[in-house]
Write a structure and sequence with these properties.
Blueprint lengths: L20 E9 L3 E5 L5 E6 L1 H9 L11 E6 L5 E6 L5 E6 L6 E7 L3 E7 L7 H14 L2 E7 L8 H16 L4 E3 L8 H8 L3 E5 L6 H8 L12 H4 L9 E4 L5 E4 L13 H4 L7 H4 L16 H8 L7 H13 L6
Parallel strand pairs: 3-5, 8-9, 8-11, 9-10, 11-13
Antiparallel strand pairs: 1-2, 1-4, 2-3, 4-5, 6-7, 12-13
The structure holds guanosine-5'-diphosphate and zinc ion.
Guanosine-5'-diphosphate binds next to helix 5.
């Protein structure tokens, strides 16, 4: 009663308990441990509840939690955490993993909004086949895509290079893909690339040496990615462990650095589906005689007719045939 009496028990001062749960994004996965990035920038090591592994097995996925997953965690006394919930994924990029009896899906990255393919003017020179694979992958998984052409500084004074790069820029722009011409060295186009990456999750893919790391460092110096250390030659033939890593951007949003392109197996795609992921072929395909036309040998094919007559913009038909052949050999469908 006598609240004011000095003898009254002091109000039981609850020890200011740290919130025991938090929301975060998975930045890295090593199989059994995950790096979870909290909104305040803190990183915490977490394990996943055993039930997620069982669920993953049921739906034939190899990994219950993927980089890019939005998760709820419970903080443990030892400073680690337990992933207690995985939010539904909006998108995912995956590859096929060989299993004991049948191949399973390995989710590489979840919740990706956009994929950017980085190329360079020279050293290494622009590789449209690589670009088309990334664009097909993006179309297949339903994420936006764009092209970055770096090392623009090397083009100055090279008329032939200017013409060639001009051709690729207008081709990809005419197909509806944004194209950015950049120089990490001179800081050209860096602001535009940063704007494109802000407030979303973007996968950035490119062959070694194009300046992807330099460019991302220019976008956000805090990333501090290693640059210029891997030469094209030493990379070849060497088995590199591939870790997808998600980085927060100071401007907002995340980038996911991808170690290579071979990973983007178009693993559940059948040959007749491929044409639908070449945006310029889409309007033609409905006029093909056979619904399962693969647009290379079939009679009554509207695509090959357009190629033969030179109508329509089918500059990428060669790329199409190349990817089609790899799908037929089964390279993209797992071993
Ligand atoms: P990554 O393998 O794609 O991550 O490429 P790096 O960022 O490691 O860069 C590879 C090499 O290209 C390094 O020697 C960089 O200094 C160089 N480089 C990167 N960006 C540019 C650029 O815009 N212009 C020029 N001339 N060189 C660049
Ligand atoms: Zn056809």
């Amino acid at each position: 009663m006598s609240d004011l009496s000095p003898e009254a028990d002091p109000a039981p001062e609850a020890a200011p308990e740290a919130p025991s749960t938090a929301e975060g994004v998975v930045a890295r996965s090593t199989g059994s441990w995950y790096d979870v990035l909290l909104p305040d920038g803190e990183r915490i090591q977490a394990r996943a509840r055993g039930k997620f592994r069982l669920i993953a097995e049921e739906i034939d996925e190899t990994n219950p939690v993927a980089v890019g997953d939005h998760v709820e965690i419970r903080l443990e006394d030892d400073g680690t955490a337990l992933i207690t919930d995985i939010r539904p994924r909006t998108t995912k990029l995956s590859r096929r993993a060989a299993g004991r009896r049948h191949s399973r899906e390995h989710v590489l990255v979840a919740n990706v909004d956009a994929a950017w393919c980085v190329q360079s003017v020279f050293a290494p020179k622009f590789n449209s086949g690589f670009v088309d694979r990334v664009l097909v992958m993006a179309e297949a998984y339903g994420v936006e895509a764009g092209v970055v052409i770096n090392k623009a500084d090397l083009m100055v004074g090279h008329k032939k290079a200017e013409e060639a790069i001009g051709f690729w820029i207008s081709l990809y722009e005419s197909l509806g893909y944004p194209v950015l011409l950049t120089s990490a060295e001179l800081g050209i186009g860096v602001d535009e690339f940063r704007d494109a990456l802000t407030d979303r999750t973007s996968v950035v893919a490119g062959p070694s040496g194009v300046g992807k790391s330099s460019l991302l460092n220019a976008v956000d110096p805090a990333l501090d990615l290693r640059t210029g250390e891997v030469s094209q030659k030493t990379q070849k033939g060497k088995h590199t462990t591939t870790f997808y890593t998600l980085y927060p951007l100071a401007a907002g949003g995340y980038v996911v650095d991808t170690p290579g392109i071979r990973e983007f197996g178009l693993w559940d795609m059948t040959p007749p589906e491929l044409g639908g992921y070449f945006v310029e072929m889409r309007p033609l395909i409905q006029d093909c005689r056979f619904p399962n036309c693969t647009h290379d040998h079939e009679p009554g094919c509207a695509v090959t007719a357009a190629v033969d007559e030179g109508t329509g913009t089918l500059e990428r038909y060669g790329s199409y045939l190349y990817i089609l052949a790899s799908l037929r050999r089964g390279e993209d469908r797992g071993r």
